[in-house]
Amino acid sequence: MGLTSSWRVPETARRTSRGGATIVRTETPAENDLVIVLTYYAPYVSGLTNVARDVAEGLAARGWRVCVVASKHEPSLPNDEVINGVRVVRAPVLAKVGKGTIGINLTRLALREMRRSRVANLHLPLIEASLLTRFAPIPVVSTYHCDVSLPPGLVNAAQREMVDRASKGGLRRSASTVVTSEDYARESRLWLQIAPHMVAIPPPCLPVPEASPTYRRGDGFHVGFLGRLVEEKGVEHLVDAFLALDDPDARLLIGGDHSRIAGGSVVDRVRAHAGDDPRIELLGFVPDDRLGEFYASIDAFALPSINAFEAFGIVQVVGMLAGVPALVSDLPGVRLPVERTGFGRIVPPGDVPALRDGLAALRDTPPDPAAGRAAAAASFSVESVLDAYEAVFTKAAG
């Protein structure tokens, strides 16, 4: 259930006095229990977007009235629609800069929906965070996903500083700050702002249904990667490690969008490293209804991230829930699922020989899939995550 029984109140009249005059104000029930604000929302695909979507839809299924305010990152998207029980309001974009968007309507629409809601949840990094928390008429819970990481350059440095300042202001004025793990938060540039009101809640990791291994190409060892083909993912290092494995029967399946990526894709770099090796296949975007087929087709999942922009890696836990062990970089937050479950291997980021050796170990001595699946389910169930978010939102709203 949502907060309907304790939050919705009948319309009442309240009398106040100002300068000797009596003013009668009519209070009406809020239209939303929760408003979620972020830059990119579905159908855009990223770890941050998926967390916001899964929390929104999960709470809506529990009876919460949820509204999402996001940028209209594709002109063809409707301004207002309902997706799986969640009302989505999109603000037109004036321009895109790096991984962010520019437009005044997001702030205006978010404040409008806040006035109709009981509690707000901002997903950071968000350039509007400081302004929104300054003028928010309701309590705000911020979910801080990760520090912004951009290539070197004066423009990118300025953009990073602007986003960090906005996040700092937003975090200081938030009732609570949700992070995916304390492991990551302690290494963040914004730890001093995160720490006072931190609550660690892992992202919801939805299991995929059992499916046929339609992406499989033979009986050899199959390695999979799934995610946006961007700088911080380190996919070219995985390609180099796979090639060094020198296994003619092995296959590397790389799934992920590279055509509509905020900040640009590194697909050309990945292709250059792969060369014309027929064992490496770029699958492109893998839709949700085929994720079960993808995970059923691989023997190990690799997340070779190279910097702290990656704060958790939901895709590795989804793989664990499907019985697939993970090879991940030794980065704050990213290493947590393997540390907690023991279902996989942890290697230094960007270390090709270590990645090669990790792949060989998972191939030659694969861990027990049933035990790994059970450990992942015990630590990262969707219901426990939604319970935790529900408690944070309820407490913030008083």
UniProtKB/TrEMBL annotation:
Its EC number is 2.4.-.-. CDD domains: GT4_PimA-like. It comes from the Bacteria. Gene3D superfamilies: Glycogen Phosphorylase B (3.40.50.2000). Coiled coil: none annotated. It holds the Pfam family Glyco_trans_4_4. PANTHER family: GLYCOSYL TRANSFERASE GROUP 1, GLYCOSYLTRANSFERASE. This is Glycosyltransferase family 4 protein. It comes from Actinomycetospora atypica.
